[in-house]
């Protein structure tokens, strides 16, 4: 249960309404000692893990976050991207720094 599990189920359901020329991809960090972060794609009501990281890391680290975004860009080419961030205990000033780290992504 919990918010994360509910959010992931909502994305599975929502993916049934996505047209074939769109993609829904998420980076998930469950903040768990047993479940490492992963990148997952939702399509036609199915959840498919694109990448399972083999070690834990702080997603708030600008260089790691940039690498996650670059991985998504590399594995899921598109003309345009939308970025949704959700979590807890986040304040806006650090995000300004983190967004600056995304400059220079290669598509």
Provide an overview of this structure.
Strands 1-2-3 form a three-stranded antiparallel beta sheet, with helices on both faces. The protein is an alpha+beta fold. It has helices at residues 2-14, 62-75, 92-100, and strands at residues 24-28, 38-43, 46-52.
Short description, anyone?
Helices cover 34% and strands 17% of the residues.
Task: Output the keywords.
107 residues; alpha+beta; 3-stranded antiparallel sheet; 3 helices; 3 strands
Helix/strand order:
HEEEHH
Ends distance? 36 Å
Rg, Cα atoms, Å: 14 Å
Give me the count of strands. 3
Calculate the mean pLDDT score and round it. 83
Detail the topology: elements first, then pairings.
Layout: H1 2-14, E1 24-28, E2 38-43, E3 46-52, H2 62-75, H3 92-100
Antiparallel strand pairs: 1-2, 2-3
């Amino acid at each position: 249960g919990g918010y994360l599990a509910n959010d992931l189920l909502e994305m599975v359901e929502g993916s049934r309404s996505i047209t074939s020329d769109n993609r829904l991809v998420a980076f998930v960090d469950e903040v768990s000692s047993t479940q490492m972060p992963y990148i997952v794609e939702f399509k036609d009501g199915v959840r498919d893990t694109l990448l399972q990281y083999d070690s834990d890391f702080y997603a708030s680290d600008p260089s790691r976050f940039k690498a996650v975004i670059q991985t998504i860009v590399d594995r899921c080419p598109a003309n345009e991207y939308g970025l949704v961030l959700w979590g807890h205990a986040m304040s806006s000033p650090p995000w300004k720094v983190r967004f600056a780290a995304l400059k220079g992504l290669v598509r």
